[in-house]
Amino acid sequence: MNNVVISNTLRFIFLILLQVLLLNNINFLGYVNPYLYLLFILLFPFNASQTLLLFLSFLLGLGVDLFEDSGGINAAACLVVAYIRPAILRFSFGVSYDYQTIKFSSTPLGSRISYIAIIVFVHHLILFSLEIFSFAHLLLLLKKTLYSGIFSVILIFLSLALFSRKPK
Amino acid sequence: MQQIFNFLIRNKNTIIFLLLLVFSIFLTIQSHSYQKSKFISSANFLTGGIYSWTSDINSYFHLEEYNQRLLEENKQLRAKMANLDDTLNTMDILKISDSLYNETYTYRTAAVINNNYARIDNYLTLDKGRKAGISKDMGVVTSQGIVGIVENVSRNYATVISILNSNSRINAQLKKSNHFGSLVWNGEDPNIAQLTDVPSQARVAEGDTIMTGGRSLIFPKGIPIGTIEEFSLNPNQSYYNINVRLFNDMTNIGYVYVINHNKKEEIRELENTTNDE
């Protein structure tokens, strides 16, 4: 149990710093940035308290906002994603989620893709709508969501492949 | 009563979610309203400290470039000074008042420790704050052109609302005539800003220089902004919409000057009493 707490705390701090110091400065094609800090919400233990996840996600987003001077856009987007995570888990992994027996690394690839992609795109859509905050830039909003979303999904998969422990 | 408690406990996640969501939306709306102090900003001890630490490392990689810029600026200033000396010598009857005790603008230097330009509302963070004499509403420029206006100040850090921000409106004019307009940004290209509200009587040509207008109390008149890239009349033919290519590369700003108008309060006071009468 302790091990889980420590690894999640470290992941929380590491992901915020990585996001604000490195990833926010990529600006590929002028505006495309990956949002890797979603890994924290994605990998948060499935059987832990939902209330705790809500609070931590809010703090995670607020931490990034603090660095970005962006008000509360990351906090709001993370919060929504954390709130709907159980529903997405049930949708992607089916019955096994209800019995809380799934291990992330041993799930089929298809379910994993749908789980990650749904969370990433919902998060990005909320994030960029709040950032742009006007209907005048609808096309820019969709472009940003799509490109950054694809970038994030790829980067999340790469880091999962890099850092996941091999099943013995 | 029991039922209310039961309801609250059963739906505690939803209630917490809604409360936190309202709070974050509130912060978002606050961040979109111009010229309001925010309590979530990067001008604080923690984020400012981390940013200045990383920019310390980062600035080493740009030393040569900053040196180039300083040399360039020195060259321009020397050329200006030489001209000024000439004119002063030819008019030696004229008495020069001691400008040291009566200067209108004070310049301070600062380093940029964080710079955004990929979003719609962009901000910069400076490594100096209240302790170094920086306060809200001061202008921020580089040797090449304008950067933005100071928005939030803490003891050691300050955030600057960039000209690449949809809330930014800066008084600007054409260099060759006195027609004024407002410099805004449409959120697309970090090298191009828009000059609006220039009356159609003005003669506008591609390549003309745009500079600050000196109507606001923030920037002195004549700080370069950019050149006209393209222009068109708006549908009712009364104003120009002008795209301005900025002199400053907003994606690469190392050191800046913070300008204070020393007689700001006096002018404001005067205007207020005039308006009240």
From TrEMBL, chain B:
<dbReference type="GO" id="GO:0005886">
    <property type="term" value="C:plasma membrane"/>
</dbReference>
<dbReference type="Pfam" id="PF04085">
    <property type="entry name" value="MreC"/>
</dbReference>
<comment type="similarity">
    <text>Belongs to the MreC family.</text>
</comment>
<dbReference type="InterPro" id="IPR042177">
    <property type="entry name" value="Cell/Rod_1"/>
</dbReference>
<dbReference type="InterPro" id="IPR007221">
    <property type="entry name" value="MreC"/>
</dbReference>
<dbReference type="InterPro" id="IPR042175">
    <property type="entry name" value="Cell/Rod_MreC_2"/>
</dbReference>
<keyword id="KW-0175">Coiled coil</keyword>
<feature type="domain" description="Rod shape-determining protein MreC beta-barrel core">
    <location>
        <begin position="112"/>
        <end position="259"/>
    </location>
</feature>
<dbReference type="GO" id="GO:0008360">
    <property type="term" value="P:regulation of cell shape"/>
</dbReference>
<protein>
    <recommendedName>
        <fullName>Cell shape-determining protein MreC</fullName>
    </recommendedName>
</protein>
<keyword id="KW-0133">Cell shape</keyword>
<feature type="coiled-coil region">
    <location>
        <begin position="60"/>
        <end position="87"/>
    </location>
</feature>
<dbReference type="InterPro" id="IPR055342">
    <property type="entry name" value="MreC_beta-barrel_core"/>
</dbReference>
